[in-house]
Specification:
By secondary structure, this protein is an alpha/beta fold. It is built from 10 helices and 10 strands. A hairpin with a 7-residue loop joins strand 4 and strand 5. The radius of gyration is 21 Å and the shape is globular.
Length: 294
Amino acid sequence: MAKALAAPAAQAWALKPREFEQIRRLAHEKFGLDLRHGKEELVAGRLGKLIRTGGFGSFDEYYRYVVVDASGEALTGMIDALATNFTSFLREQKHFEFLAASVLPGWMDRGEIRVWSAACSTGEEPYTLALTLLDTLSGASHGSIRVLATDISTRALDAARKGVYPKERFLDFPQAWLPKYLLKGEGHSTGFYRVKPEVRRLIEFRRLNLIEPFFHPQPFAAIFCRNVMIYFDTLTQTDLVERLAACLEPGGYLFVGHAESLAGARSNLEYVRPAVYRKLAGAPPAEPRRRTGS
């Protein structure tokens, strides 16, 4: 974002109700974010840095710049600023325990294993998925392991592709995994670990906006879409669940966040355990509802 203007005085950056409404509608239309009233301070804080560095005189001026930017870079910057991108290794650990103990034994003799981390943030979830698969299926006669990892944030994806994290992120990590799957930093990289290349090669990182149409030519055995739908309104949540279910193979698993509900979805999914659902074998794909305006 480049505008040759002097930075305005701090008091000029107050977020007016009309400006909040403009940003709220744009965020909902472009990436499904449900910025309800009461989030004004959050929006002002997260976009304030872009206002300052871009030299904009107001949130209205910044909004108009985002709307007319044909490159899409300004909108991406706005998304990156508003997206939480909070994650951790083994987050909601019971999901990975269930995957290893109850799901993967049935995958021992299958060919290619395809899983999707549908809101991968900075990469901790897809790397945990890959390591869980490698560790549990070690020695089995399975074929290749492929993990698709997508996110709307280009900033988060850039960090994920590098696979470099401070050692504090691995305090709850299985100790046997550290030397097996990670490289310990030395010199200027002391205090950091990097995921080994052979693990990184299992994962394809790709930008994807979950509220826009998506298509995958092959179904997935499991999809992790956790802690992103809590930011969507009910209609967007329902539509997304149905489209995710259509990407699962019969008998495939959908993992959602423990704070998320699938109530109202017509998605041919059966409840397995908290935040885990399975696609009914032989069920026809659901016809997704279409989102309307906010």
